[in-house]
Amino acid sequence: GEESDVKFNNEVQLWCFSNAYPNGKKIFAGFISRYEPKTDGINDTVVVHALGYHTKLTDYILENAQGSTNMTFTNTDPGTIAETLINSFRTRGLPINWNEQTLQKTGNAISYSFQINTGAEVLDKLLSLSSADWYWYVDADKNLNYHPKSQLPIHTFTIGKEIAYIEPQKRIENIVNQIYLVGGVPTGGTYALYSK
What are phi and psi of 99, to 5 degrees? Predict the structure, then answer.
């Protein structure tokens, strides 16, 4: 019932059972972020909305032990910065963790100053500062994963087998042909506008 089974921040798990996983495999863990109790006079139902734990990373700002939100990392691997981020947030209640298998090091040292950034913003910035083709996500065991993309396909999906129905959407709403540059005219340029 409400405030017991259906309560804000209660964990929601999805499990898959198959021949390959007769005891089940957890494929999602998240939390209740919204719910809608409904009644039509005869039937009572509750629609529950769950978010993945990765969304919690927008609730925390990176800060040091003194509470400063300006943090500079010098010659540090992005994986080490991600570890520092998660370890710091865990002391403030973040349910996400990491281990050596889920959070890889890039092998590159970077220097960057973060100023009032959420955890998600920090991880996205680390991707842009890492070698090409890295990605991050939070798995069903609530571990941060930080890995390079595989050069070979990991999964192959066949329409009619794994995919029963597909209806892709094509649109032009997000196409950008001109970008205004803030901060003056770029070196060698004549306008603070880039067109393609």
Answer: -145, 175
